[in-house]
Amino acid sequence: MTGTRGPEGPPVAGRLFIGGEWVEPDGGQYAITDPANGETVGSAPEASRAQVYEAVSAARDAFGPWSRTRPEERARILDTAAGIIQRDAAESAELARRESGATTGTARAMQVGVAAARFRRYARGALEPVEQPLPPQLTPAGPMGGGGLLGALAVRRPVGVVTCITSYNNPWANPAGKIAPALAMGNTVVVKPAPQDPLSVFRLAAALAEAGVPPGVVNVVTGSSPEAGEAAVEAPGVDMVSFTGSTAVGRRIAEVCGRGMKRQLMELGGKGAALVFDDADLGAAVAGIGTTFSFYSGQICTAPTRVLAQRGVYERITGMLAAYAAKLPVGDPADPATVVGPLISAAHRDRVESYVELGRKEGARLVTGGERPTGGALDRGCYTAPTLLADCTSGMRVVREEIFGPVVVVLPFDTEEEGIALASDSDYGLIDYVWSGDPARAFRVAGLLRSGGVGVNTVARHMEAPFGGFRMSGVGRDVGSYALHAYSEIQSLVWPGR
């Protein structure tokens, strides 16, 4: 392994981070482009399969010492890393904006800011108790010996080496949400970022190294093709895979993990239903649903993309959503006035546009959007207008499949039972939403929805509440203390009483 020592400070451009060293990639580099204008942001390294295996080996060697590190020391390092991230927040947010297309405000607050907050949270998490005492149990005498009183503890232990495969829509908060709890529990990690925007993750690794993370505890490998990710999943030294991304890729990862009996944490696709009842505060509902048009340009799995509107408010909310979408400024994410920035790539923009055209062919009514914004810098970027499709039916592909862009579909329903049935008619089950002026009905309906979370009259997230999905939306839960549980194994300790 040819490496350049010097992990403190900024990452060495175009190099992998393996075993505490910046390593020249076997496959050269590939360009990272700004989706707002097509300009080159920087170069990312192309790791070979052998280099990914080296990263796993480095993590395996570091696991024993790191897992035995005192929780207070792990907490100190994570807290120090949070301070370094905050110190360099302006420069990091600029990089995140350029490689992901997020607006400046989003890059600062929801990407870099959330990443720092997650390292602070899991610095505290490293100090949470890992033992749960169990009630004593009286056992009668039998063939195995005399009876007596048994004591027991359930103790959470680190899993081992964790491969973290992260999503492109948030190159700071998503990796931080995996790395921080994994390290807090005493695991070591190999991080494989999304190929579109990996440069932020190298900055994150450099912050951790500066904070004092020992060599091999955190490793970062990248590649523009699936090869690096596949190697990071199948490597024999990997004990667990934590993945955020599409359901299709998640299925393939699950197959490999199944063969090796590897632990999985999967946060996959979503097609969130937003049930809006006749008695709802329509202004609040529109403001919440409208985040699909603007937040990450709809590239977010928790978005309320399926609006199920009760017949009495169907036309009103359709009109209000159209007006909301039409007034959102689309443009350069560096411009403070911009609300809707570009999609991550031209290929993804084409995919989103193809879904809009498919919806029209399926019989949906295009209420607003559907066109590609043009003029000036918009011609060089990967932009698409916020789009609303109405008069949809549950069998349409635009209703059933995750589009992952600023596209909302609207379906009418009459009775509460029909609304619940429509919401449940989905392969996904990540987060659904209910808007109603009747709290009893809202919570009753929420309890009948088959999804990992339900927002009642809000799209806000509670950052200690468990996060994950039913059905094709994933396996397992994280966030808050639930993430510490996700990155740990349970060991039982049993002993005779006196």
TrEMBL record:
Span of domain Aldehyde dehydrogenase: 22-492
Membrane-spanning ranges: none
GO terms for MF: oxidoreductase activity, acting on the aldehyde or oxo group of donors, NAD or NADP as acceptor
Entry keywords, A to Z: Oxidoreductase
Alphabetized SUPFAM superfamilies for the sequence: ALDH-like (SSF53720)
A Pfam family of this chain: Aldedh
Protein name: Aldehyde dehydrogenase
